[in-house]
TrEMBL record, chain A:
Record keywords, A-Z: Oxidoreductase, Thiamine pyrophosphate
Residues annotated as domain Transketolase-like pyrimidine-binding: 4-179
Residues spanning the signal sequence: none
PANTHER family: PYRUVATE DEHYDROGENASE E1 COMPONENT BETA SUBUNIT, PYRUVATE DEHYDROGENASE E1 COMPONENT SUBUNIT BETA
A Pfam cross-reference name: Transketolase_C
Necessary cofactors: thiamine diphosphate
Transmembrane segments: none
Species in which this protein is naturally found: Alsobacter ponti
Protein name: Alpha-ketoacid dehydrogenase subunit beta
UniProtKB/TrEMBL annotation, chain B:
Domain Peripheral subunit-binding (PSBD) per the UniProt entry, residue ranges: 122-159
Pfam families (UniProt xref): 2-oxoacid_dh, Biotin_lipoyl, E3_binding
Residue intervals of the Lipoyl-binding domain: 4-79
Domain of life: Bacteria
Stated name of the protein: Dihydrolipoamide acetyltransferase component of pyruvate dehydrogenase complex
CDD domains registered for this protein in UniProt: lipoyl_domain
Enzyme Commission designation: 2.3.1.-
Entry's transmembrane regions: none
Known cofactor(s): (R)-lipoate
Protein family according to the UniProt entry: Belongs to the 2-oxoacid dehydrogenase family.
Alphabetical list of PANTHER family matching this protein: DIHYDROLIPOAMIDE ACETYLTRANSFERASE COMPONENT OF PYRUVATE DEHYDROGENASE COMPLEX (PTHR43178), LIPOAMIDE ACYLTRANSFERASE COMPONENT OF BRANCHED-CHAIN ALPHA-KETO ACID DEHYDROGENASE COMPLEX, MITOCHONDRIAL (PTHR43178:SF5)
Subunit structure: Forms a 24-polypeptide structural core with octahedral symmetry.
InterPro entries: 2-oxoA_DH_lipoyl-BS, 2-oxoacid_DH_actylTfrase, 2-oxoacid_DH_E2_comp, Biotin_lipoyl, CAT-like_dom_sf, E3-bd_dom_sf, PSBD, Single_hybrid_motif
C-alpha cells in the first residue's frame, strides 16, 4: 500500500498509458512545458518527448477539433480543458463530431479520444470557473462520462477511458486534486459504467459521484450516530451509469437520495430519480429526494459559495425528509 | 368495484393472502344454482367449499386445479344476477381488500384503492405493494408519514398485529426444513401455499418471540397402567397418552389462569379460557386446531372431543374458528421415538408443550433397589414477554404432578 494524491494518480495513469501504447498523445493549454495548470502532466514531456505531449494555443475549439481528427486518424489523444466552464467552446467537436462518428459511419470508424476537465466550486473561482456541467455531456448519445471520487478510481477510470474505443469525458473535481488516499501498489483499471458501494446500509441509499461522494459518507456517519443506517454508492460513471446497482440497493433500503454538486434542476439526479421512480416504483417507501446546488450561478463570495454547495447537513436533512 | 362477471378467490381469514384452487366442481357452460359448490379452496389452514351466491351459468375457468392465486384474483367468469364474490362458508371470513388484491390481474393496471368517501388514500408504492400481497385494505389504516401517508412500516405493523390475533398453522421443530438457504447445487422442492405460509410464520415466531424453555420428566408408569385398564372397557372411548396430557394442561390452566395469556400490541392479554391447541400431523402438513374448555372436561369427554378435532383436521374439515384462541399447544411426537421435542411457539400463542417418547429407566425406590419406571420427556417453550422462568417452572410442575397422579385426572373437573 502507498499513499498518493488524486492528481498524482492522474499523472500515473497518463504515464502508464503512454508507456503502454505509443499512439497515446497528450495536448492542451500548458500541459507540456508547464506540466499542466494543476500539474497533472508533470514530468511527461521529459519522459515521452514533445511529439507525444505538446502545448496548444488558448483555443478550446481548436484543441477539441484537433483531438477528433487525430483520433479518427489512428491516435489516442488525451486533451485537457483547463476548466469545465470552457467545455462550451468544444461542444461542436464533441457533440456533432466525436459523438456521432461511429453511428454515421455505420460502425466503421470511431473516435477514441479522452477529454479531461476539472469542475466544481469551493475555491472562490467564481461563476465562470466553478461549474459542474456534466449533465450536458451525459445527455448526448455517443459520449461517455466518468467522474472519479478518489485517487484509485481516478487512475482506474482514466486508464479505462484511454483504452475505450469511443470518446470519453473524464470530469475531475478540482477540490479533490490535493486529496490523499492509500492505494494498492498495482492499481487496477476500472470498468466504465460500474458503481462502487462504499458503505452498506439498510434504511436509505445515497447515490452520488465525484467529490459529493465524500459529503454522502460524512452524512452517513452522522446518520449512523442517530441510529439511521445509510448505504453510500459512488456511481463513478455517469454515462453509462450503473442502474442495476442503484436499483438493487433501493430494493433493500426503499429510500433514495441523490446528491451532486451540479445545479439540481435538470441535473444528473433528475435522470437517476426518474429512472428509479419508474423501474423501482414498487420499492419506494418515501419520495426520492435530490440534493444539488440551487438554480443560480456559482457565487464568487466565499461566504455565499459555502451556502451554495451541498454539504452533509443538507444530505442529512434530505434523508430525514424521505424517512418521515 | 368488483366486475360482476368475475368469480373471485375469497378471503377466508384475516391473514389469508393466497389460496390454492384445490378442485373445480363445475365445468364451463354449466348451470349452477344458488348454494351449489363451485370450487374448493385450500388455504394455509383448511379446505373450504365455495358455493355460488346466486344462480348462474359458468362461462370459463381461468385458474387450473392446484394453482395458487392471491385473494381477490378472478378465478372464473360467469353470468349471474348475483354479485361478483361468492359468499364464503367459513365463519369469520373477512371480505376485505378484494378490490385491492385484484389489481395485479386487472387490465386497467395498478391504482389506488377505491376511496372511502371521495378521498384518495395516501400510501407509498412499497406500502401498496405489501398491502396487495397480504390482502390488507389500505383504507383501514392510519399512516404515520407526512399528511398521513401510509408507509411500509404501517402496513407491516397491521400484518403483525392481525397475525398475533389469530394463531393458525403450527409451530413445530421439523418445520425448520422449510428454511431455504441457497447453498450449492440441488433440486428445489416446490412448496404449497400452506408450506410457504408456515415457513413465513414460523420464522417470524422464532425471530420475534423471545423463547425460553423449561424441561422436566414425568414418571408415567402409573398413568400407563391406568390407561391400559381404562381401555379394557370397550364401551368407553379409548384414551391415549395425549388425552391425559391435554387434560393435565387444561387443569393446570384452570388452576393457574394467569398462564393463559398472550402477547398483543405491546401488552399481555389474559384469555380466561382453558382452550388447548393440539398439533395434528395431516396429509397436508401440520395443523394446530384448538380443543375448547379442556380444563372443565372429563377424561372421556375430552377424549371424544379431541378425537373429533383430530378427525376433522385429517379430513380437511376444520373451520377458521377451530384455530382461534388458546395460549398453549400440545405437540406430542412420542410415537415417533424422540426423547425430547423443543418446539417453536405457535404464532399468536405464548407457550407450547413438546412431548417426547416414554423411556424405560431404572430408578431407585425408597430402599435403594432398582425399579423399572417409564418416564416422559417434557419441554415447555414459553414467551418471555408474557411469563417468566418461575411461573413456567411452576406451570410445568403442575402438569408433571397431574401425570404422576393420574387418578386425580379421573376426578370431576370442579
Amino acid at each position: 500500500m502507498t499513499e498518493i494524491r488524486y492528481l498524482r494518480a492522474i499523472n500515473m495513469a497518463l504515464a502508464d498509458a503512454m508507456a503502454e501504447d505509443d499512439t497515446v498523445v497528450v495536448f492542451g493549454e500548458d500541459v507540456s512545458e508547464a506540466g499542466g495548470s494543476f500539474g497533472a502532466s508533470r514530468g511527461l514531456r521529459d519522459r515521452f518527448g514533445p511529439d507525444r505531449i505538446f502545448d496548444t494555443p488558448i483555443s478550446e475549439a481548436a484543441i477539441a477539433g484537433a483531438a477528433v481528427g487525430v483520433a479518427m486518424s489512428g491516435l489516442r489523444p488525451v486533451i485537457e480543458i483547463m476548466f469545465m466552464d470552457f467545455i462550451t467552446l468544444t461542444m461542436d467537436a464533441l457533440v456533432n463530431q466525436a459523438a456521432k462518428a461511429r453511428f454515421m459511419f455505420g460502425g466503421q470508424g470511431s473516435v477514441p479520444m479522452v477529454l479531461r476537465t476539472p469542475h466544481g466550486a469551493g475555491l472562490g473561482a467564481g461563476p465562470q470557473h466553478s461549474q459542474c456541467l456534466e449533465a450536458w455531456l451525459a445527455h448526448v448519445p455517443g459520449l461517455k462520462v466518468v467522474c472519479p471520487s478518489d485517487p484509485a478510481s481516478a487512475y482506474g477510470l482514466l486508464r479505462a477511458a484511454i483504452r475505450d474505443p469511443d470518446p470519453v469525458i473524464m470530469v475531475e473535481n478540482k477540490a479533490l486534486y490535493g486529496m490523499k488516499a492509500e492505494v494498492a501498489d498495482e492499481l487496477p483499471v476500472l470498468p466504465i459504467g460500474k458503481a462502487a458501494i462504499l458503505r452498506r446500509g439498510k434504511e436509505v441509499t445515497l447515490v452520488s459521484y465525484g467529490a459529493s461522494v465524500h459529503i454522502c459518507s460524512a452524512a452517513a456517519a452522522q446518520l449512523e450516530a442517530d441510529g439511521i443506517s445509510a448505504e453510500v454508492i459512488d456511481l463513478r460513471s455517469l454515462q453509462p451509469w450503473d442502474e442495476a446497482t442503484v436499483l438493487e440497493s433501493l430494493s433493500s433500503t426503499h429510500r433514495l437520495v441523490v446528491v451532486h454538486e451540479a445545479v439540481e434542476a435538470f441535473g444528473p439526479g433528475a435522470e437517476i430519480a426518474a429512472r428509479m421512480a419508474d423501474v423501482g416504483f414498487d420499492e419506494l417507501d418515501g419520495p426520492i429526494v435530490r440534493v444539488g446546488a440551487p438554480f443560480m450561478p456559482v457565487p464568487f463570495s466565499k461566504a455565499l459559495e459555502g451556502r451554495y454547495l451541498p454539504d452533509a447537513a443538507k444530505v442529512v436533512a434530505a434523508v430525514r425528509r424521505t424517512l418521515a | 368495484m368488483s366486475d360482476p362477471s368475475a368469480i373471485l378467490m375469497p378471503k377466508l381469514g384475516l391473514t389469508m393472502t393466497e389460496g390454492v384452487l384445490a378442485s373445480w366442481l363445475v365445468k364451463p357452460g354449466e348451470q349452477v344454482r344458488e348454494g351449489q359448490t363451485i370450487f374448493v379452496v385450500e388455504t394455509e389452514k383448511i379446505s373450504t367449499e365455495v358455493p355460488a351466491n346466486a344462480a348462474g351459468v359458468i362461462v370459463e375457468l381461468l385458474v387450473g386445479e392446484g394453482e395458487t392465486v392471491p385473494v381477490g384474483a378472478t378465478v372464473a367468469r360467469w353470468t349471474s344476477a348475483g354479485a361478483g364474490l361468492p359468499p364464503t362458508t367459513g365463519r369469520g371470513a373477512v371480505p376485505a381488500a378484494t378490490d385491492t388484491a385484484q389489481i395485479p390481474h386487472s387490465q386497467s393496471g395498478a391504482h389506488a384503492p377505491s376511496p372511502a368517501a371521495g378521498e384518495r388514500v395516501l400510501a407509498t408504492p412499497l406500502a401498496r405493494r405489501i398491502a396487495r400481497t397480504h390482502g390488507v385494505d389500505l383504507r383501514t389504516l392510519t399512516g404515520t408519514g407526512p399528511r398521513g401517508r401510509i408507509k411500509a412500516a404501517d402496513v407491516e405493523a397491521t400484518i403483525v398485529a392481525s397475525a398475533a390475533k389469530g394463531p393458525e398453522s403450527l409451530a413445530q421443530g421439523d418445520a425448520g426444513a422449510a428454511q431455504s438457504g441457497r447453498v450449492g447445487p440441488g433440486r428445489s422442492r416446490p412448496l404449497s401455499g400452506f408450506q410457504k405460509t408456515m415457513a413465513r410464520r414460523l420464522t417470524e415466531a422464532k425471530q420475534t418471540i423471545p423463547h425460553f424453555y423449561v424441561l422436566a420428566t414425568a414418571d408415567i408408569t402409573d398413568l400407563l397402567e391406568l390407561r391400559r385398564r381404562l381401555n379394557e372397557d370397550s364401551a368407553a372411548p379409548k384414551v391415549s397418552v395425549t388425552h391425559f396430557i391435554l387434560i393435565a394442561v387444561g387443569r393446570a390452566l384452570r388452576d393457574d389462569p394467569g398462564f393463559a395469556a398472550v402477547w398483543v400490541d405491546d401488552g399481555v392479554l389474559e384469555l380466561g379460557t382453558t382452550d388447548v391447541g393440539l398439533a395434528v400431523d395431516t396429509p397436508r402438513g401440520l395443523l394446530a386446531p384448538v380443543v375448547r374448555d379442556v380444563g372443565s372436561r372429563s377424561l372421556n369427554g375430552l377424549a371424544t372431543e379431541a378425537e373429533s378435532v383430530i378427525e376433522r383436521a385429517r379430513s380437511g374439515a376444520l373451520l377458521p374458528d377451530d384455530f382461534h384462541g388458546g395460549a398453549i399447544t400440545v405437540s406430542n411426537v412420542g410415537m415417533h421415538g424422540a426423547a425430547f421435542l423443543v418446539p417453536i411457539i405457535n404464532p399468536g400463542q405464548s407457550a407450547i408443550l413438546g412431548v417426547g417418547a416414554a423411556s424405560r429407566v431404572f430408578r431407585p425406590d425408597k430402599q435403594g433397589a432398582p425399579r423399572l419406571r417409564e418416564e416422559l420427556g417434557l419441554v415447555l417453550s414459553c414467551d418471555h414477554r408474557v411469563t417468566n422462568g418461575v411461573s413456567a417452572a411452576r406451570f410445568l410442575n403442575r402438569i408433571v404432578a397431574a401425570l404422576q397422579n393420574p387418578l386425580g385426572l379421573l376426578r370431576g373437573s370442579s
